[in-house]
Structure formats: structure tokens, C-alpha cells
Amino acid sequence: MLPMAPDGRFSVSCFMLGISVLLLPLVTGLRHESLTVTGRLAFLVYFVLLNVLLLVLFPNRQARFQVAIRACFLGFVCGCGLILSSSISSWRYFGWYLCSLSFFHYSEYLVTAITNPRNLTLDSFLLNHSSEYKLAAISSWLEFSLESLFFPVLKENQWISILGLFLAVSGEVLRKAAMLTAGSNFTHVVASERASGHVLVTRGVYSVFRHPSYVGWFYWSVGTQAILCNPLCLVGYAIVSWQFFRDRIEDEEITLISFFGDQYLDYKARVYSGLPFIHGY
């Protein structure tokens, strides 16, 4: 494994800077349950000040600023999620969701910096994954907000939210274990040509599932909607994610067969894809 990319270490500091929003309630005495317009404004001002600070620190270093602004934003969202998690209302589940969402995207960047620093880019945050991904996220926020307002009883099943948290955390752990196990062989984009040193990884979590990173992402995605007790998005996420990974796995396995031939076919015959009813190419 190559040494962590300098931008990876730098991003940790920026993420922690963002998560420092946790200090705001301690300093001001604000509590989520009693947040007034002034209290909400305090969080907005804090976020603006963080951005101004980054602009001051990196005025002529655009590349560093782009990393800093993303890592700091994700840390801020994670910190706000932790604050919401202390609520006694159903919004504490939205706090769990924010922590899961922000840490997923930040850890994608950080683990890439550790395992494959040569391929580390701003896209490694996966914040610009696709317009469909952004639409799905916005839809989940709208569903949670509207159902909390008009059908609050839907948000009162704590055990479903706990199960969702378990799925999200388990999926996150599995995906990051896959990335760490694969090392430099893991990329966010399916390779069209076999790189020098690219080997077929069959150890660790890859001995259990052929596509553990996709399995982890699938259950993380579904788990986030179970956390929110979003019945519509839960079904929608499961169907759309399954279809996406079915097509992705088929395309990837065509490439892997061209790279490794019988070696991959033997591996494919022994090891389950990891997702139900998806058999691959």
C-alpha cells in the first residue's frame, strides 16, 4: 500500500474543522429543541465563517481550497447530524442519516487517499456522482419532511430506524473493507484497460462476495431510508439501486473476464456476487 496522499491528511484537518460546529451549542447554550430563528441563524453564520476562513487560508491555492471546502462541508454536516441526534423528536433520526451520509462521502475520499493515492481526485468524494443520485437524495429529504409534518406516526417506529442504522453502518464497513482489501486495484470508475500491476483480488471480503463494495453500497443506501422510516424512498432506493448494480456488475465482469480470462471464470463459479438475483455476466 502506497503512503497516504498529502491531500488525504490535509482533508482530515478540514473535516475536523467542519465538525467543530459541535462546539456551538456548548458555547451559546443552544439546544435543538429550543432553536429559535436566531439559533438557526447562528449555525448559518458559523458555516459562512468557516468558508471565509478557508478563503483566507488558501487564497492562491485553488486545488487545496477545493479539497478543503468539501471536507469542511462534510464535517459540518456530520456535526449538525450529531447535534440533531441528541433531539428527543423524530428529527434525531434525520441526524443519524446526516452522519451516515456525510461520513460515507468523506470516507470515500479518505480511503482512496490511503489505498490508491495516484487516482485521488475531487471526484473521489462522490459528491457529483450523478444527477439521479442528487435527485434521489432530495426526494428522501422531501419525503421525510412531509411525512413528519402530515403523518408523524410514520416516523415513530424506533426499531425500524435502528435496523436501518445497522444496515447503513454494516454496508459502510463492508464497502470500506473492500476498498482497503483491493488497495490500488480499486477504482471508482470501471477500467477499460488493464493497468500495470492490476491483479485479481480474491482474499478477505472478496472471498465471500465477488462485489463487496457494491453490496456494501446497496445496503448502506437502503439502510439510510430505513433510518428515516421513508417507505416510498425505501422501496424506490432498493429497486433503482438493484437495477444500477445489476447493470454495473455485468459491465464490470465483461471487463474482468477480458483481463483475467479463466482465472476470473473460476472465481466467478466459486463466489456469490453478493446481491440477490444478480448473477453477473
Structural class: mainly alpha
Number of β-strand runs: 0
Specify the number of helices. Answer: 10
Task: List low-confidence stretches.
Answer: none
Order of helices and strands: HHHHHHHHHH
Largest sheet: none
Distance between the termini: 30 Å
Q: Averaging pLDDT over every residue, what do you get? A: 91
* Radius of gyration, whole Å: 20 Å
Share of helix among residues? 55-70%
Tell me the fraction of residues in β-strands, as a range: under 5%
Overall shape: it is globular
Describe the secondary structure blueprint for this structure.
Layout: H1 6-19, H2 23-28, H3 37-57, H4 62-85, H5 91-115, H6 131-150, H7 158-182, H8 212-227, H9 231-260, H10 262-270
Helix pairs in contact: 1-4, 1-5, 3-4, 4-5, 5-7, 7-8, 8-9, 9-10
What does this structure look like?
This protein has helices spanning 6-19, 23-28, 37-57, 62-85, 91-115, 131-150, 158-182, 212-227, 231-260, 262-270. The protein is mainly alpha-helical and 281 residues long. Helix 3 (37-57) runs antiparallel to helix 4 (62-85) and helix 8 packs antiparallel against helix 9. The longest helix is centred in the C-terminal third of the chain and has 30 residues, at 231-260. It is globular and about 65 Å long.
